[in-house]
Each structure stands twice: as C-alpha cells, then as structure tokens.
Amino acid sequence: MNKIEIEKIKIIAVEGKDEVNFFEAFFEKNDINDFQIINFGGKSKFKDKIKLLTKLDGFDEVTHFGLIRDADENYNSAFESLIYSLKNSYLPYPKKGHSFSEENNNLRVGIFIMPNKNKKGALENLCIEIIKEDKDFNCIKKFIDCLSEKPEKIEKSIIQIFLATKNPIVNSLGLGAKKGFFDFQNEKMKELLDFFECF
Amino acid sequence: MFKEISINRFRSINKIDVLNLKNINLFVGSNNCGKTSILEAIFIITGVSNPKIPLTLNQFRDIDYLFDKGKNHKLIFYKMDYESGIEIKAKIRNEIRELKIGPYYEKENNETTSTFDENFFKNPYFDTLSDNKNINGLDYNFKIDKKKYKAAIYRKGILFEEKRPINYRETIIGTYVNPKSILKLLPEKLNNLIIKKKIFGIINILKKIDKNIENISIGTDNLIYCDAGLSELVPINVMGDGIIRLLSIIVTIANQRNGFIFIDEIENGLHHKTLKILWRTIFDMSREYNVQIFATTHSYECIKAFQESFLFNKHQEEKDDISLYRIAKKEKEHKAYSFTNEELEELLIDNWELR
C-alpha cells in the first residue's frame, strides 16, 4: 500500500471516509482539482492530527489548509474547538466560521462547519436539504412517520433509506455522493461552493 | 544524558537545534537531510577533547585523510567554509559544553618552498588555497560550564600531531558503531563480557535469531567463534551480517554503562523480524546499562519495528523514553520535528510517509 504524503499545497482535513468520498465527488463535479483531502478519522482527533500534520514533510509548502467538521449540537462549540486546535499548533485561525485567517507565513486557514453557517447538525443534514426536492422524499418521510419507534439518529436513517431506494444501492453517504445521488448544483450547496471559491 | 544539542555550520547543516532528547533517539529523513551529520556532531561533542574524532568520522565516510593534503579537513565545515568555523553546543545532564572547531594552520615556518613543473599551470582545478596557507589540521576550543580548554590535531610531515589539554579529564564516553570498526573491536568487548559472566545474556538474545547458537568464544587467533550445534565451531563471519550487526550493537551497549552509543543506518543488514528483536533488546538494555542511544534510519520497516517493539518492552511505563525526529531542510536551516511513540503509532496506522 502506498504511503500517504502531503502532495498538494492546498489541503482539507475532514472527519472520516464518508466525507472523503463526498468531497471527492463534490470537487469533481465542480472542477476543483487542486485540493488534497486528508481523513482525520474522527472529530475528536482534530487537535492531535493537526499538530502531527504540521510536522510532516510538505506542510511547510502548504498555502491553504481547510478544516471541515460537523457542528453536531452546537455550531459555536464546534468552531471554538477547531480554533483551540489551531492555536495549539501555532497556526493562524479565522475570526469566525465559514471564513479564512489572515495569511501567515504563506499559509491561510479556513473553517467550514457542516451543515451550513450557524446551523446545528452534520453533513447528513446538508444532504437531506438537497434530497428534500427529490420526488420521492415524501415517501421517505411518511415511512419514518409510520414507524412505531423513531430511530435515534434520524438524519442518518433518512439518508440510509434514501440510498436504499436508489439504483445501484450503496450503503454510505459518501458512496451515494460518488454515484451522483446528491445534486451538487443545488442552491443549498452554495455556501460550501462559495467557501472553496473564496479560499 | 544529552538533553539538547545545537549544531552550527557542520557538514551540510548550517543550523539545527534538537531539543528534548530522550533515552533512545531515532533520526529519519530523506537522503542528504543531515541525519548522519547530527549523529556525528553529538559524537564529536561527546569526545570534546579528542580532535581525532572528525578525521576518524571522515574515514567512516570513506574520505581518506591520510592521502589528502589538508583538503578533507575542510569537508567537516559547512560549505567547506573553514574560516567561519563549527559550533556545537550541548546540554548533558546539567552540564553545558560548547565546542568551536576552526582551521589549524602551519605555524612553524613563515615561508615554504615548493617546486613544480609547467604542468602546474595547465591544471584548471587549483584554487587560491593552493597558493596560500594550507589548513594543516583542526583547532579545538571548548568550554565546559564556562571553563575554557584548547586542543588541536595537525599534520607534521608524514605524521599527525595532537595537542590535548592536560587539565581536562573526560567524564563521559561514547561509541560510534561502524561496520569498519565493528570486527576490530568486537573480540575485546566480547572478552570483557565473558570475564564479567555476562555472555549468556548475549547468547540468549542471539538465540532469538538463530536457535542453534549455543555459545560464543574467542580463539587464540582473536577470531570470534560460534557454537551453532555443528561438529566444530564456526567463525562468526560466516553466520551472516545480521548476526554480526546485532552482536556488535548489544555487545557495545553491555560494555558502555552510563555512556552513549551512535548507530548510523541501524537497519543495515537486518531482516525486518530481526529489527524487532534488535529494538526490544535496545529498549531493555539501554535502561539496564543506562545508555543513551542515537540512531539513524531511512527504512520504514525499521521505524515500524521501533514503534511496535516499544509496546512490548519491559519499561513501557516510561512513555517518555523514546523519540523519533524527522530531519528536514528548511531554506537555510535544518529542523528536527519530534514525534512521541503515541504520535508515531497514529501516523503508522494511517500509513503516513515519515522518512
């Protein structure tokens, strides 16, 4: 297996494999081909992984470093947690989410919190916003409503049900994105697209 | 124990600081990144009063000073600029030692006479030095906790002369494990262990590689012989490079209580399974004998064995015992990025390139 190296001067760090697949599809659809996507393997690892990344070969040449994670229950807490991680590694940091730091030693750092600015939730919420316009979305909603016991992670369930209705069936959001099941031209994707266009 | 080292203008390194040195230190980095030079600089300041060391190190690198008219003295200086001199500073336990190495010029005569034929003028390679004063050797100025000393090594005719301070007595000792010196020193070091009844510990370690090894002895011919269960003893040389390499490292540690050991390209000649045995042995023995280890590698398998073996060592509670340093050249300076064992584990799980 080939070793992972910092190969591009623009990198983004994401939470997991699903996000890697999602962004690979998103970049391809939007003709963005100068970013390397790095899987940090969980939001709890951002602090340590940022520090490690800064010590690896190639990081000195990085000019754009994007951090992308879920807001979960609180947008501001997610943002503050990333700022703390950046400060811990002596890296520049933006003053607010969905924006970029001043340039420091040729490096600019940007933060995007999923699903969108000042919203709680995760990547799944952003995708649900997109598939709401799908003609069969109401069927999925009715199916959920019909259940005697509601699933604990309802957004994840909606995405799984949506993917189960597609052909071919895939079992993860990221693979669904690669199959083109989410419309990246949708208005709800504008914030994410703007983020990369301004970066 | 070395706690930190600062190196200025030595070989390919203009400047580097390596802080927070641990009991076992592994230096990695791409070719020509300066990792061997760091090892050499620490070795030089370990033997701060011994100006023969840089020239010996040159010979380890196959730069034969005996047949070179002073030019190889320049090779230890950054960009061969000997006038700027080398500065090495180290914190060892609570002692601060500083060493400045500069050129030593011929002093005995104000004028020299030489003869040459017309071919001299056809030689396109001469430089100003050829017509000026030759560096005749190395000049040492060192300070131990602010007390100053001087030493030098220089050529005198066909011989070398060395000056060492009589009022300085070295308190620490280090050994540079090099293939060229291994076999020469091994019989004597092994003999010390036989006398101290420590040889069976060494044999038990070798058994992990070759279970047939039952004993090791030294012949009157000063060769090391191995009892591998055959009808007669066999010279260690025929047992393979791996056994000799492993033996030389563990025998050096066992002979070097409270000292320092330097091993360049530690993975050389060793199978990846042997690398794990080597590291486990180093982790255990370095504590037992209180030896600080400095090693280099550019092998991924060696880094992996280093990290994995630490999990099995007896002293694993000492989490702060080892460190890996990635050496990188950054514009005019070099930089050492240190990684703890836990960080190393994360990077290896994710399959990051570290070399």
Write up what this structure looks like:
The complex is a heterodimer of chains A (199) and B (355). Chain A has 199 residues and is of the alpha/beta class. Chain A folds into two domains: 10-120 and 184-198, Rossmann fold (3-Layer(aba) Sandwich); 123-178, no CATH class. Chain A contains eight helices and five strands. In chain A, strand 1, helix 1 (17-29) and strand 2 (35-39) form a beta-alpha-beta unit. In chain A, helix 4 crosses helix 6 (154-164). The longest helix of chain A is centred in the middle third of the chain and has 14 residues, at 75-88. The mean pLDDT of chain A is 95. In chain B, a hairpin with a 2-residue loop joins strand 1 (2-10) and strand 2 (13-18). A seven-stranded antiparallel beta sheet of chain B has the order 2-1-4-5-6-7-8. Residues 128-132 of chain B have low confidence and may be disordered. Chain B has a domain at 179-255. Chain B starts with a strand and ends in a 6-residue tail after the last helix. With 355 residues, chain B is an alpha+beta fold. Chain B has helices at 35-46, 52-60, 71-74, 119-122, 128-131, 179-195, 199-207, 241-254, 272-288, 300-312, 341-349, and strands spanning 2-10, 13-18, 24-28, 86-92, 95-105, 135-144, 147-156, 159-163, 174-177, 215-218, 224-227, 234-235, 260-263, 292-296, 322-330, 333-339. The A-B interface holds A 1-5, 39, 41, 45, 48-49, 52, 55-57, 60 and B 30, 300, 326, 328, 330, 337-339, 343, 346-347, 350-354.
